[in-house]
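User:
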Amino acid sequence: MSEAPETSPATSRRTLLCGAAAVLAAGGTLAVSGCSSSAGSSDSTSAPKGPVDLGPASAVPVGGGTVFREQKIVVTQPTEGQYKAFSAKCTHAGCIVDQVKKEQIQCPCHGSRFGIADGAVQDGPAPSPLPAYAVTVEGGNLKVTPS
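Assistant: Predicted structure:
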């Protein structure tokens, strides 16, 4: 009697390389990209393109600010009538800032704090200021153009 040949699924080159990379990466010696089966992923935390209407300027308190989480924008009003807009994406780890308190834009992830007048780093591990955006008030509404 002859035995049927053993059949096993063929191992693809990608599977083999990703497996090897996982073993090496566990040791901290290799970082590999391209192991994902999905192609063309996009950055889900990128800012919107073009002017964005954020609603009434009155929603932004003097000496404070408002985080527009969905648009990934934070608008501050350091002094009455002076509006500043910044990316709400922290320059440290990419978390979205969550509040403006004590004249600082605050990131909940690792404690970075940014100035409301210029987005400059005031505390924490963030390596650079928040990117500034153009902001205008038209008809009482805030219009922000991410750059």
